[in-house]
Amino acid sequence: MFIWIESPSTEYDWSRHTDAFENLGLAGFKRDHLILGDLCALEAACKNTNLSNRARAYFRSVTTKYPTLGGIRREVVPVIARPDVLAPFTSDSKETIVPLDHFANEKSTGQVTIICEHLYDCKIICEIGRCVLRAKRLAGLASISMAKVPGGGGGIHLALTDRMADPFSWGVCIVDSDRAHAAGKLGNTARTCQIAYFAEPSSHWRWELHILNARELENIIPIEAWAECLGSSGFALTDTIHERAWNVLGFLDSKQGDSLCRILKTPKSDSGRKLIEDAITSVSRHLHPVYLQCASTKECVGDNRCVLVAADSSRLRKLSDWIDRQGNQLLSKVSFSGRPIEDIAQLVMSRGLAANISCV
């Protein structure tokens, strides 16, 4: 987790927060979290002779590298730890503000948890965060460190409820929306997770539930990434129109395969119909004539020319295996941009960022 220690003033007396500094310094030293802050707070930690050698070593290291490390806050939203705050709250700028002494208990600096349907979902989402770190030229300073918990589809809400019950745990739960189209209803997994999450409002400052603005995780992976991993993306549309065609591409069923015909059969009375038509219109010049012909007919001619994505129920597992083989060279030339994937990357970086610097 990216934690920023914010000072009330340059003259503040930090001596009463030794336990919090000790736990945060050790968490940074062990590379479980990235701990930074206002320079006066870090310098106070360096001078605190009651801290362990490892905790002081960490604070000395980040203080020395402060001109470089300080810029991370411009790219990643931190959790703000303040000594003058009595209870956690969310600021107008959507930052989580917590009392510094929350970290006086060593349990509060345990590894952040990520809960997804499958273990390979967790792995891929963490890799998205690493890819964005590399793109922002931050990979030499920070990495992603999260405890991965597979919820097993229908069991995600149970895992979420169990983990949220720990008053010192931090985590994120990321689930597919399973919407059939942009304005479709949430699937059962997303709905049960919502019920579980909103049943524990007192945990919302430590935990975040993120329902993808897409049918499934497969939809937000850049098409060129699939091409690099599988040799062929399986998608008929190209990455150049990914953003403008989101209300089509974002809700294709890539597991069963999907076609323009299925999308066009969305009832005219459905609120998603207008979104779909606008998306198709905006990208019509990029579509092959056979798709436009299919779109103009009332009935499907049944020749499969309108297929927008080929069926493949094992895409994510294949991508996960590919990540294991490629290591940190994964997708180095792929652009991970666009609102749905940037939202996930920012969440993973904020909650999963860890020090990647030498502290000895």
Task: Characterise the protein shown here.
The protein is an alpha/beta fold and 360 residues long. Helix content is 40%, strand content 13%. The protein is built from 16 helices and 13 strands. Strands 2-1-3-5-4 form a 5-stranded mixed β-sheet. Strand 9, helix 8 and strand 10 form a beta-alpha-beta unit. Helix 6 crosses helix 16. The longest helix has 17 residues. It is elongated, with a radius of gyration of 23 Å. 43% of the residues are buried.
Main sheet attributes: strand count, strand direction, barrel closure: 5 strands, mixed
Instruction: Record the strand order, biggest sheet.
Output: 2-1-3-5-4
* H/E series: EHEHHHHEEEEHEEHEHEHHHEHHHEHHE
Please, what is the average pLDDT? 85
Please give the radius of gyration in angstroms. Answer: 23 Å
Question: How far is the N terminus from the C terminus?
Answer: 21 Å
Q: Counting H and I runs of at least 4 residues, what is the number of helices?
A: 16
Low-confidence segments, given as residue ranges, are none
Blueprint (SSEs and pairs):
Blueprint: E1 2-5, H1 18-29, E2 34-37, H2 39-47, H3 53-64, H4 66-69, H5 72-75, E3 79-82, E4 89-90, E5 96-99, E6 113-116, H6 119-135, E7 142-144, E8 147-150, H7 156-164, E9 171-175, H8 188-198, E10 207-211, H9 217-220, H10 223-230, H11 246-249, E11 258-259, H12 260-264, H13 272-282, H14 289-296, E12 307-309, H15 315-326, H16 339-352, E13 353-355
